[in-house]
Amino acid sequence: xxxxxxxxxxxxxxxxxxxxxxxxxxxxxxxxxxxxxxxxxxxxxxxxxxxxxxxxxxxxxxxxxxxxxxxxxxxxxxxxxxxxxxxxxxxxxxxxxxxxxxxxxxxxxxxxxxxxxxxxxxxxxxxxxxxxxxxxxxxxxxxxxxxxxxxxxxxxxxxxxxxxxxxxxxxxxxxxxxxxxxxxxxxxxxxxxxxxxxxxxxxxxxxxxxxxxxxxxxxxxxxxxxxxxxxxxxxxxxxxxxxxxxxxxxxxxxxxxxxxxxxxxxxxxxxxxxxxxxxxxxxxxxxxxxxxxxxxxxxxxxxxxxxxxxxxxxxxxxxxx
Amino acid sequence: xxxxxxxxxxxxxxxxxxxxxxxxxxxxxxxxxxxxxxxxxxxxxxxxxxxxxxxxxxxxxxxxxxxxxxxxxxxxxxxxxxxxxxxxxxxxxxxxxxxxxxxxxxxxxxxxxxxxxxxxxxxxxxxxxxxxxxxxxxxxxxxxxxxxxxxxxxxxxxxxxxxxxxxxxxxxxxxxxxxxxxxxxxxxxxxxxxxxxxxxxxxxxxxxxxxxxxxxxxxxxxxxxxxxxxxxxxxxxxxxxxxxxxxxxxxxxxxxxxxxxxxxxxxxxxxxxxxxxxxxxxxxxxxxxxxxxxxx
Lengths: 321, 296
Fold this sequence. Notes:
The complex is a heterodimer of chains A (about 325) and B (about 300). By secondary structure, chain A is α/β, with parallel strands linked by helices.
């Protein structure tokens, strides 16, 4: 029996806009096993960050269930939620805005410890802070530095230390490397991977960079306009993408070979508006294979191979040979 | 308990204090440093005006035998048509300008900051309503508002302060609103919520201190513009009345003799200009020094 730590069921987040309801996250369901990483990929505005925040209730979900260790996060009282936040943390995208510019490294990292009264003695708190700094690879001498004195990689390490300070089991990594230089990205990714091994963490890894997620994730969910349109183990998804959107996405990964360029599937057509969408496949307007049935009903995510889910009624016509 | 002596890790490394850091950056801007000293000097003068001078004899006591002496060694700024030393009167006038400027700015801050901050934090209809009201007030020339209020409510210093503060309230409110909106959408606010911080401590610990940085600058500039407004109204005869040596009133008093004795208007004018210029330069310096993101 698999050990599911997080079970998201029919999660929805709608935003009110003057032109109607914006379906940012529309009926998203997935499970993550303890100690694994789920990568969520998709273009900007597809609802991947909103999904991550709704799971942590940093944004209140409109509907759905988020079972964390069997307990529904959405129904928790504020008090219980604050308790639970110790187990569920988030690492933010932009290390330049995710730290209060007025807090030193010590204050930033120790804040969650002091706030949640994990430790109360000042010496213990500072020693724990130093320990966390070592864990994430920050030199102890930076303890009194302000964020603006540090580079993006170091700031991101502070963000990671801050998330780790409460000893979480589960961390949402919201594009943790996309704001960093490529050379630093690898360091941070390795750090996250090491931490997962050492501390047995479970990750949701939100990104738009497929190379990153291939390296990192056990399972990958591809999102398009608020819906998961394909979900599969990472290797399976890369070798046998079934949804036309996933296929187009994968064909856009640059290949460092000038003689053997794979054919690029270029998407044409308009992006469907996420405001009050019709009951049809949301990708149909850009899909190369769309037919009438695609406009008739929104296809549901169905398991077509063991562990491989796809939301496309015509997937079997286009399997990669 | 551990028996060995424990050292706080943060004590082992030097830390530049917040004030030290601030001064380090403020002092990069030489103009702002000079401006700060000018403002301090004028402020000191304003605070000690009544200690240095005797109001009844030196400020309003007249001596017609000394009238209209051009600037000389004994009277560097000359004397007015009632034989009063202009240097004394201009220096003493700092008291009024500073008092009016500071109380206006304080009033703007006390009223405008909470309104703007609430509008920025909650947004929605309240925000819309409040900001439109301030837009309407802002579309009326501030001098006109001053004239209206003083004409309607009377000729008192307290009323003058309120009259000048009205347009400033909107300016501080919109600055506060912008500051709060920027900070509210910052990820560090979300980050604080993610570690379980409640709203009130979050606002007090993360929103207010970061917003104050931005608002303090606007308040400083508000002092300068309040001084100008007060002087303008006094010049028009609606502010502080003569014989009080308010700078605008001094200008007004010298106006009728401007062709023959231009120094009567020159020196109070210069006093206004230097004070406001210094306040503005200081505001610029503060803005650069308080923003931790602007390095070097």
